[in-house]
Write a structure and sequence with these properties.
The protein is α/β, with parallel strands linked by helices. Helices cover 27% and strands 27% of the residues. The protein has helices at residues 41-48, 97-100, 141-146, 148-161, 178-189, 201-209, 223-230, 248-253, 276-281, 294-305, 322-330; strands at residues 2-6, 15-19, 29-38, 59-60, 64-72, 84-87, 90-91, 111-112, 124-128, 132-134, 169-172, 193-198, 214-217, 236-241, 255-263, 285-288, 313-318, 337-341. Strands 3, 5, 6, 9, 10, 17 and 18 form a 7-stranded mixed β-sheet that branches. Helix 4 packs across helix 5.
């Protein structure tokens, strides 16, 4: 089969479109003929090499996919050949205290497809039966490949960790990326008011057309000062941030008393300057979040079935042009998800 493979870490030139062996499944696994896969910033990190994480090489990238079940293992009971499916990209042991409690993303052995194990930028991928789900809400293969990682991440951030309530106000930093776009839709789904930031006026206008209530250009304005003006110095209830060091202090300044800052990443650096006085005086909560559990994934699927959530597709490329697609992501030119199709 054809796949996008890296044999060493580095730049875009390390992506190779080449022939590899088709995966062989175990009794509890499912083989999926991939129809579409999408890009995440994780793919850039994996390609470059992640400090502290040993990635076996050669390695196939790609955490998200949708497709048709081509083969099932002898112990598989809930999935059959021919099913149209999407995949939860998480992997877990199923035996530890966290898995037994239904908190799979806290599993000490938690892994993500395309990071710790071979991914879905390929014609076929093998996954555990419990990770396979019917495509919800009449989504296309491209849409079904565009939501799992980012929407699951955003769902846990807002619904579980931040416990977002109807009528609250959410500030989302850096609209246009996958998690930010998912968070905007989920916040509106939950009945919240949504304020977004971007350095691109075009992205802000697109976000407003899709339901954001207010847009702030963080290249032209101090977004914390703008939040103070917009809220009468009260601040927002929840901030969604994955930028890290560059935005951290302004995010804290933007929070109301009792507010919650929820983060799933640190693209600008993991060690921001803290503001402990403000954190304890305003009784703020700083919440970390990674991926999600099976219950949350099923909640997300039901939300998609209502038709009120829908992945936003930026551009679609054939699998062979993965390097071109990843370059667009690195340049932050996208608005929504970039998708690869597999013929």
């Amino acid at each position: 089969m054809k796949a996008i493979v890296i044999h060493e870490h580095g730049g875009l030139d390390k992506l190779k479109y080449e022939e590899v062996d088709k995966p062989k499944i175990s009794p509890g696994e499912v083989l999926i003929q991939v129809k579409a896969s999408s890009l995440n910033h994780l793919d850039i990190f994996v390609r470059n090499g992640i400090p502290g994480i040993k990635i076996p090489l050669p390695h196939i990238l790609g955490s998200d996919c949708s497709g048709i079940v081509a083969e099932v293992g002898s112990e598989v009971r809930q999935v059959k050949v021919g099913d149209r499916v999407t995949v939860n990209p998480g992997r877990w042991c199923g035996r530890c205290e966290f898995c037994v409690a239904g908190e799979q993303s806290l599993c000490p052995y938690f892994q993500i497809m395309g990071e710790h194990v071979d991914g879905a930028w390929a014609e076929f991928v093998k996954v555990p039966e419990e990770s396979v789900h019917p495509i919800p809400g009449g989504l296309s293969f491209e849409e079904a490949a565009a939501f799992p990682l980012v929407f699951l991440t955003a769902w846990r951030m807002l619904i579980t960790r931040a416990a977002l309530k109807p009528g609250e106000t959410v500030l989302i930093i850096g609209i246009g990326g996958g998690v930010a776009m998912a968070a905007m839709q989920i916040a509106k789904y939950a009945g919240a008011k949504v304020i977004v930031t971007s350095g691109s006026q075009e992205k802000l206008q697109k976000a407003l057309s899709l339901g954001a209530d207010v847009g702030i250009n963080h290249r032209e304005q101090d977004f914390a000062a703008e939040i103070a003006k917009l809220t009468g110095k009260r601040g927002v209830d929840v901030v969604v941030d994955s930028v890290g060091a560059d935005t951290w202090q302004k995010c804290i300044l933007s929070l109301a008393k009792g507010g919650r800052l929820v983060t799933c990443g640190a693209t600008s650096g993991p060690n921001p300057k803290e503001d402990l006085l403000r954190i304890f005086w305003k009784q703020l909560s700083i919440l970390g979040s990674t991926m999600g559990n099976q219950r949350e994934f099923n909640e997300l699927l039901r939300a998609f079935d209502t038709g009120r959530l829908k992945p936003i597709i930026d551009q679609v490329y054939p699998l062979a042009e993965a390097a071109k697609a990843l370059q667009r992501l690195e340049e932050q030119a996208q608005f929504g998800k970039i998708v690869l199709t597999v013929s």
